[in-house]
Every structure is written in C-alpha cells, then in structure tokens.
Design brief:
Keywords: Membrane, Transmembrane, Transmembrane helix
Structural class: mainly alpha
Strand order of the largest sheet: 1-2
Shape: flat
Helix content: over 70%
Strand content: under 5%
Number of domains: 1
C-alpha cells in the first residue's frame, strides 16, 4: 500500500513521494527542479489558459525549451518513489514510466501543431493524451520481455 501512496503523492508533485520515503535530499532536489522548470516554462500559466480553452495563447506563453524537461522529471520522480517504497519488483516494471515520459515529451514537441476537430490540442492536452500510448507501449514491451525471460 505504501508504494501506491508514494506514487500518488509523486503524481501530485514530483519529490513528495521521495519525502515520504525519507529520501529528503532527493525529494528536495526534485521539488526544486519541478519549481524551476514550472516557473521558467510558464507551466502554471499554460495550464490555466489551456483549461480555460485559450489554447492558442497557452502555446504562445509556453517556453518549450524548459517544458521539454518536465515529462522526464515527472515520470522519473514517480518511478523512483514507487520503486523505493517497494513497488515495481517485477522485471521491466519501469517500462510504462519510461515510455510515458518519451511519448509525453514527443506530445510536447508537437503540441503546437496537432489539431483535433480544427482546434489545436495545445501544450497540456496533447501531452496528457500521449500518456495513454506511452503506457500501452510500455506495458506491452514489459509483457513481451517478461514472457521471453520466463520461457
């Protein structure tokens, strides 16, 4: 149960799971990095604008040079806290986290270009939707590799 708890706190804010795991320096470094990327990438402003439906302005406000770091930091913090709390003991358990980070990063790259029903998906929505194929690919590879390992 503790592994799920730290995973959920890490989803809330990278570094919180590490603090619960008593990894104070690692947790504080992750929180500091989250705030640095958040502020320099204008992430909170982009989130607000996106949720209010002003996607074009959100794209204009986004600092992609900084936002590109966020998916890897976010999913690494989740994986690290989960692993340190005793979760993810099965082989290749990290793959869904890694591929989610990859896919969300690619979603961030293309977030100012891809439309759905004539509306730009933007900096928040396309990366969020990109978690799903990342999880699918990661879980599929985990399953394939685990079968090869056991056969």
């Amino acid at each position: 149960m503790k592994a799920v708890e730290v995973l959920l706190w890490s989803i809330a804010l990278p570094g919180f799971g590490q603090l619960l795991n008593k990894m104070y320096i690692k947790g504080l470094v992750l929180i500091l990095l989250e705030f640095l990327i958040n502020v320099l990438g204008n992430f909170n402003e982009v989130i607000i604008l996106s949720f209010q439906g002003n996607v074009e302005m959100a794209v204009e406000q986004a600092n992609y040079q900084w936002l590109m770091f966020y998916p890897c930091l976010y999913f690494f913090a989740m994986w690290d806290a989960y692993k340190d709390a005793g979760g993810g003991k099965e082989p290749y358990a990290f793959l869904p986290f890694v591929f989610s980070a990859y896919f969300v990063t690619v979603g961030t790259i293309y977030s100012s270009k891809i439309s759905l029903f004539g509306q730009l998906l933007g900096v928040i929505w396309l990366p969020m939707l990109s978690v799903l194929p990342g999880l699918f690919v990661g879980l599929l590879l985990k399953r394939i590799l685990t079968k090869k390992l056991t056969s």
